[in-house]
Amino acid sequence: MLEGLFKNSTESRSCRPIIQRIYWGLYSYKIPDITELVFQIDREAYLTADTILYENNMILQKPGMHVCFTLKHHGRTNVKHTMMGDIFFHKVSKKIYKHPGYNNKVPLTQAINDYLYISRKNGIDPYAKYKFTNIHFYENKK
User: Fold this and answer.
1) Distances (CA, A) of 93 to 3, 13, 25, 108
2) 17 and 38 assigned to the same domain
């Protein structure tokens, strides 16, 4: 388990003065990174699409929701409301699922493919949602 994170409120009765509720059943002394939080909620999930594109300055607008791909079904709702923003767990097939490894963040090329997959699946034009930047930089890196 990560430092400062614990799973239930019985462990939260310690001497530390400030304990914050991060998510249902998950408390912390400090605000964790979004990748740590995704790992604690679903160990098979990984950040992709809008979040990675924003972190790599490929889109200008900050996404309203963090998108994760997973193999698990998350009950009635796939959107988890946390103090760090909403996280959308998108269940995909094993053909599409490709976990990046330790850091739970996919490479930029995979994030672009995942963004196009989600957009097409939802019937949204991928270029209408965000203003893309640095496309020429990406093309020159290939």
Assistant:
1) 32, 41, 28, 20
2) no
